Amino acid sequence: MGVAELLLKRKQELAEKNKTEGAAFREEYAKNENVMQTESGLLYEILSLGDGVKPTMSDTVLCHYHGVNIYGEVFDSSVLRKKPAAFPLENVIKGWSEGVLLMPVGSKFKFVIKPELGYKNREISKELGPQSTMVFEIELMGIL
Protein backbone atom coordinates (compact mmCIF):
# COMPACT_ATOMS: atom_id res chain seq x y z
CA MET A 1 0.00 0.00 0.00
CA GLY A 2 1.45 3.35 -1.05
CA VAL A 3 1.45 6.66 0.81
CA ALA A 4 -1.61 7.97 -1.06
CA GLU A 5 -3.61 4.86 -0.16
CA LEU A 6 -2.54 5.08 3.49
CA LEU A 7 -3.54 8.74 3.68
CA LEU A 8 -6.90 8.03 2.08
CA LYS A 9 -7.52 5.14 4.50
CA ARG A 10 -6.60 7.37 7.44
CA LYS A 11 -8.94 10.12 6.24
CA GLN A 12 -11.80 7.61 5.80
CA GLU A 13 -11.25 6.20 9.30
CA LEU A 14 -11.11 9.69 10.80
CA ALA A 15 -14.24 10.73 8.91
CA GLU A 16 -16.13 7.68 10.21
CA LYS A 17 -14.99 8.35 13.80
CA ASN A 18 -15.94 12.04 13.56
CA LYS A 19 -19.31 11.19 12.02
CA THR A 20 -20.18 8.68 14.76
CA GLU A 21 -18.94 10.76 17.68
CA GLY A 22 -20.51 13.93 16.26
CA ALA A 23 -23.91 12.24 15.90
CA ALA A 24 -23.75 11.06 19.53
CA PHE A 25 -22.76 14.58 20.67
CA ARG A 26 -25.62 16.19 18.73
CA GLU A 27 -28.15 13.66 20.03
CA GLU A 28 -27.11 14.39 23.62
CA TYR A 29 -27.00 18.16 23.09
CA ALA A 30 -30.49 18.16 21.54
CA LYS A 31 -31.89 16.82 24.84
CA ASN A 32 -31.11 20.12 26.61
CA GLU A 33 -34.28 22.00 27.50
CA ASN A 34 -33.34 25.28 25.78
CA VAL A 35 -32.07 23.74 22.52
CA MET A 36 -34.11 24.12 19.35
CA GLN A 37 -33.63 22.43 16.00
CA THR A 38 -34.33 23.70 12.50
CA GLU A 39 -35.70 21.56 9.69
CA SER A 40 -32.17 21.07 8.31
CA GLY A 41 -30.91 19.73 11.64
CA LEU A 42 -29.13 22.87 12.87
CA LEU A 43 -29.21 22.90 16.68
CA TYR A 44 -29.23 26.22 18.47
CA GLU A 45 -29.65 27.86 21.82
CA ILE A 46 -30.39 31.53 22.46
CA LEU A 47 -27.82 32.84 24.95
CA SER A 48 -29.07 36.42 24.72
CA LEU A 49 -31.66 37.95 22.42
CA GLY A 50 -31.05 41.35 20.89
CA ASP A 51 -33.73 43.70 19.64
CA GLY A 52 -32.19 44.70 16.31
CA VAL A 53 -33.23 43.68 12.82
CA LYS A 54 -32.48 40.25 11.40
CA PRO A 55 -30.08 40.05 8.47
CA THR A 56 -30.96 38.72 5.02
CA MET A 57 -28.91 36.36 2.88
CA SER A 58 -27.55 39.27 0.80
CA ASP A 59 -26.17 41.07 3.89
CA THR A 60 -22.63 41.25 5.23
CA VAL A 61 -22.63 40.81 8.99
CA LEU A 62 -20.22 41.82 11.74
CA CYS A 63 -19.81 39.04 14.31
CA HIS A 64 -17.75 37.91 17.21
CA TYR A 65 -17.53 34.12 17.20
CA HIS A 66 -15.81 31.25 18.95
CA GLY A 67 -15.66 27.87 17.19
CA VAL A 68 -14.72 24.58 18.84
CA ASN A 69 -15.00 20.92 17.96
CA ILE A 70 -17.03 18.51 20.11
CA TYR A 71 -14.03 18.04 22.42
CA GLY A 72 -13.82 21.78 23.14
CA GLU A 73 -10.69 22.34 21.03
CA VAL A 74 -10.72 25.80 19.42
CA PHE A 75 -10.33 25.85 15.64
CA ASP A 76 -11.25 29.49 14.99
CA SER A 77 -12.15 32.42 17.22
CA SER A 78 -12.51 36.13 16.59
CA VAL A 79 -12.99 36.42 20.36
CA LEU A 80 -9.44 35.13 21.01
CA ARG A 81 -8.10 37.45 18.29
CA LYS A 82 -10.04 40.29 19.99
CA LYS A 83 -11.30 41.49 16.63
CA PRO A 84 -14.83 40.96 15.23
CA ALA A 85 -15.08 39.63 11.69
CA ALA A 86 -17.27 40.63 8.76
CA PHE A 87 -18.77 37.97 6.50
CA PRO A 88 -21.09 38.10 3.48
CA LEU A 89 -23.74 35.54 4.52
CA GLU A 90 -23.85 34.04 1.04
CA ASN A 91 -20.13 33.11 1.35
CA VAL A 92 -20.17 31.10 4.59
CA ILE A 93 -21.06 27.49 5.37
CA LYS A 94 -24.77 26.62 5.39
CA GLY A 95 -24.97 26.19 9.16
CA TRP A 96 -23.55 29.65 9.73
CA SER A 97 -25.81 31.46 7.29
CA GLU A 98 -28.92 29.56 8.42
CA GLY A 99 -28.13 30.30 12.05
CA VAL A 100 -27.23 33.97 11.70
CA LEU A 101 -30.44 34.59 9.73
CA LEU A 102 -32.34 33.62 12.92
CA MET A 103 -30.57 36.28 14.99
CA PRO A 104 -31.67 39.86 15.59
CA VAL A 105 -28.68 42.25 15.83
CA GLY A 106 -27.41 42.29 19.41
CA SER A 107 -28.06 38.56 19.95
CA LYS A 108 -25.70 35.81 20.98
CA PHE A 109 -26.57 32.24 20.02
CA LYS A 110 -24.84 28.88 20.37
CA PHE A 111 -24.99 26.61 17.32
CA VAL A 112 -24.14 22.95 16.88
CA ILE A 113 -23.52 22.39 13.18
CA LYS A 114 -23.55 18.93 11.68
CA PRO A 115 -21.05 18.12 8.90
CA GLU A 116 -23.66 18.37 6.14
CA LEU A 117 -24.19 22.03 7.07
CA GLY A 118 -20.47 22.62 7.60
CA TYR A 119 -17.33 21.46 5.87
CA LYS A 120 -18.59 17.96 5.08
CA ASN A 121 -15.64 15.73 4.18
CA ARG A 122 -13.00 18.49 4.15
CA GLU A 123 -10.19 18.49 6.68
CA ILE A 124 -9.85 22.10 7.83
CA SER A 125 -7.25 21.72 10.60
CA LYS A 126 -5.98 19.19 13.12
CA GLU A 127 -8.91 20.21 15.36
CA LEU A 128 -11.48 19.98 12.56
CA GLY A 129 -11.19 16.85 10.47
CA PRO A 130 -13.51 15.39 7.84
CA GLN A 131 -17.17 14.94 8.88
CA SER A 132 -16.68 17.09 12.01
CA THR A 133 -19.48 18.58 14.07
CA MET A 134 -18.78 22.20 15.01
CA VAL A 135 -19.92 24.23 18.00
CA PHE A 136 -20.06 28.01 17.58
CA GLU A 137 -21.02 30.83 19.87
CA ILE A 138 -21.87 33.75 17.61
CA GLU A 139 -22.66 37.31 18.62
CA LEU A 140 -24.28 39.34 15.84
CA MET A 141 -22.93 42.85 16.34
CA GLY A 142 -24.24 44.52 13.22
CA ILE A 143 -25.18 44.46 9.56
CA LEU A 144 -22.76 46.31 7.29
Kindly state the percentage of residues in helix: 25-40%
User: The CATH topology, please?
Assistant: Chitinase A, domain 3
Q: In CATH terms, what is the architecture?
A: Roll
Assembly state (oligomeric): single chain
For the largest beta-sheet, the strand count, sense and barrel status come to:
7 strands, antiparallel
Distance N terminus to C terminus? Answer: 52 Å
Q: Return residue spans where pLDDT drops below 50 for at least 5 consecutive residues.
A: none
Tell the overall outline: globular
**What's the total helix number?**
3
**In what range is the share of β-strand residues?**
25-35%
Number of strands: 7
The total tally of domains equals 1
The whole-number mean of residue pLDDT values reads: 96
Computed CA radius of gyration, to the nearest angstrom: 16 Å
Structural class: alpha+beta
What is the string of helix and strand elements?
HEEEEHEHEE
Q: Indicate the CATH class.
A: Alpha Beta
GO molecular function: peptidyl-prolyl cis-trans isomerase activity
Protein name: Peptidyl-prolyl cis-trans isomerase
Catalytic activity: [protein]-peptidylproline (omega=180) = [protein]-peptidylproline (omega=0)
Family: Belongs to the FKBP-type PPIase family.
